[in-house]
Design the sequence.
């Protein structure tokens, strides 16, 4: 699939590399055109966009790309610095994903690729068992694309339910960030879903 990745930071670069290895055709959409990257503008033949910019830049980026009916996979997290350091700027009664869809009511948005670090997403196959990646959304086709891409790059892809479950996924992301930055685990770990042996 041809995937437009909005943003060229750590997450965008990691997902581009992983998707390329999995046989997809990711295109990094950036503010400043680079040698092989595209400017931040619509990509008419994309199967999906991955939103991989800071949350505060999401609305501006989506307005520039104008995805129309193309599914958007939201890899953002609403983070802000507070008295205790980095934390979520939204609580459990709202999510960044829901705020984005309120700003763009026709957006076919699924929350995914937000619950682990870029280095895990770059090469999920390094981990055993496979790391888990959740997807939450109200558009069944958009969520199916999210789950397929997550599986293609090495994750155990799990449907987390409707878009309002993004409130839980963003908190799950904050747990990974806290363990990584404050609790000494570093960036080279991932969560996995384990099942009881019958």
Sequence:
């Amino acid at each position: 699939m041809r995937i437009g990745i909005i943003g060229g930071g750590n997450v965008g670069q990691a997902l581009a590399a992983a998707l390329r290895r999995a046989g997809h055709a990711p295109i990094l959409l950036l503010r400043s055109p680079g040698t092989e990257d595209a400017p931040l503008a619509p990509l008419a033949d994309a199967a999906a966009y991955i939103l991989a910019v800071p949350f505060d830049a999401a609305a501006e980026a989506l307005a520039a790309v104008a995805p129309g009916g193309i599914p958007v996979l939201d890899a953002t997290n609403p983070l802000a610095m507070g008295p205790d350091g980095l934390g979520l700027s939204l609580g459990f009664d709202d999510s960044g994903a829901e705020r984005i869809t309120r700003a763009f009511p026709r957006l076919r948005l699924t929350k995914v690729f937000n619950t682990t670090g870029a280095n895990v997403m770059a090469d999920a196959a390094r981990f055993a068992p496979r790391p888990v990646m959740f997807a939450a959304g109200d558009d069944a086709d958009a969520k199916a694309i999210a789950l397929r891409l997550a599986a293609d790059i090495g994750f155990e892809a799990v449907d987390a339910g409707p878009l309002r479950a993004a409130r839980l996924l963003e908190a799950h992301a904050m747990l990974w960030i806290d363990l990584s930055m404050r609790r000494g685990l570093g960036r080279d770990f991932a969560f996995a879903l384990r099942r009881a042996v019958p």
Observations:
- The first helix runs from residue 10 to 21.
- The mean pLDDT is 91.
